[in-house]
TrEMBL record:
It comes from the Eukaryota. Keywords: Oxidoreductase. Transmembrane segments: none annotated. GO terms for molecular function: oxidoreductase activity. The lineage of its organism: Eukaryota, Metazoa, Ecdysozoa, Arthropoda, Hexapoda. Residues 339-377 have a biased composition (Basic and acidic residues). Residues 315-422 are annotated as: Disordered. This is Uncharacterized protein. PANTHER family: SYNAPTIC VESICLE MEMBRANE PROTEIN VAT-1 HOMOLOG-LIKE.
Length: 422
């Protein structure tokens, strides 16, 4: 198969990488058919083509493109089959390209192909503050007289209210009752990226002729690592709905998984035509990607933690040209280790002095010399570690320190014993 080599990660050029919740799920092992480790994460990147393979048509070196590889986007050079590479408009920045393609692909297919949104309809949208949520809101606003119920945490309400695009912002803790207070009839469309109990609640909010769409399962991400119980619970909590029940209630259920469509079900041509439509909407000024923040590659762990905690509003983007955030200085541990060694040595001296007193003080000088040697050996090892941390000066001082330190320690112990005996 012809391969196009797209430069998606270069420290000298203006390139960007999209960070998606799917990356987080892969990292935590909460995704089907995970790649064999070690692997490189990343599904979305934008930059210039570095080289093209044999028989590649439609692309040349220097073209500005965005690509959707199945993993490996977090690399300096990414080999991507041409069917996953798309030209971007000349006026579009790489940051917009990395922020728009995957999120707006999902949103466009949901809004216009799966539910065929029409004038006068109402939508209940979970995670309205996320990258896909913001894309759905913008695309829904291209249809007249659509009512949007946005569900998210209370901390995001003020920022989202300022956009003026969401009719009703609802806290996720009790959104079913809040929706019922606003409209007793329910809603026409439910967009669910959470799964679990939300499937049942969302289905219960549908009007007759309503449509429920599941396009994610972020509820399985509940901790730092994959939890079998969180995955199992998310699926077991979903009620089984038979076609007969759908027939009786005049409701529809649907689902969408872009990763499966693109890489497993050969939907590349359909996706390419959809990307062209999205770029057309961008040129007309009808959609603009919302970028929450940009991060240096070295800070990717912090960026993913922000996504994990659902604190972002819009897209998170990785920018290799950025300087990483200053890291807090690590406190030196050598001092505490040395102190622990001295305390240990002092305790040993007391025990030896006690034994010497019980034996009548014989061979006292010999035992003290052995203790000094032991202390020198112990403190010498600790001092060597301290010298490694503190520099050559510490190493020079350490050569003279062990015996003196031992003597000082033994001296203190002797004084202490004298006080105790008196």
């Amino acid at each position: 198969m012809p391969i196009g080599f797209s430069r998606c990660f270069n420290f000298e050029d203006d390139v960007r990488i999209g960070l998606n919740f799917q990356d987080l799920m892969v990292r935590l092992g909460a995704i089907d058919s995970p790649p064999k480790t070690p692997t490189i994460l990343g599904f979305e990147c934008a930059g210039e083509i570095e080289a093209v393979g044999e028989e590649v048509e439609g692309f040349k070196v220097g073209d500005r493109v965005v690509a959707l590889p199945e993993f490996r986007a977090w690399s300096e050079l990414v080999a991507v089959p041409t069917k996953y590479v798309y030209h971007i408009p000349d006026e579009m920045t790489f940051q917009d390209a990395a922020a728009i393609v995957m999120n707006y692909l999902v949103a466009y297919i949901l809004i216009f192909d799966l539910v065929s949104l029409r004038e006068g309809k109402s939508i209940l949208l979970h995670s309205v503050g996320g990258g896909v949520g913001q894309a759905i809101v913008q695309l829904a606003r291209t249809v007249p007289n659509v009512t949007i119920f946005g569900v998210c945490s209370k901390s995001k309400h003020e920022a989202l209210e300022a956009t003026g695009l969401i009719d009703h912002l609802i806290d996720r803790t009790d959104y079913v009752n809040e929706v019922r207070k606003i409209t007793t009839e329910g809603v026409d469309i439910v967009m669910d990226c959470l799964c679990g109990e939300e499937c049942n609640r969302g289905y219960g909010l549908l009007k007759p002729m309503g449509k429920y769409i599941l396009y994610g399962s972020s509820n399985v991400v509940t901790g730092e690592t994959k939890s079998f119980f969180s995955v199992a619970r998310s699926w077991w909590q979903v009620d089984k709905v038979s076609p007969i029940k759908l027939f009786d209630e005049n409701k529809s259920l649907g689902g969408f998984n872009l990763r499966h469509l693109l890489y497993q079900q050969d939907g590349s041509e359909y996706v390419r035509s959809t990307v062209d439509k999205i770029f057309g909407l961008w040129k007309d000024g009808k959609v603009r990607p919302v970028v929450d923040s940009a991060w240096a590659l070295e800070d990717v762990a912090e960026a993913m933690q922000k996504m994990h905690d659902r604190k972002n509003i819009g897209k998170l983007v990785l920018d290799p040209s950025m300087e990483p955030k200053p890291k807090p200085a690590t406190p030196a541990k050598s001092k505490s280790k040395k102190q622990a060694s001295e305390d240990k040595g002092g305790k040993k001296d007391k025990e030896d002095d006690k034994k010497s007193a019980e034996n009548g003080g014989g061979d006292e000088k010999k035992e003290e010399g052995g203790d000094a040697a032991d202390e020198a050996k112990t403190n010498g090892g600790e001092g060597g570690e301290a010298a490694h941390v503190n520099g050559d000066g510490g190493a020079a001082e350490q050569k003279e320190e062990p015996a003196a330190a031992a003597a000082a320690t033994n001296g203190d112990a002797t004084e202490s014993e004298k006080k105790e005996s008196s």
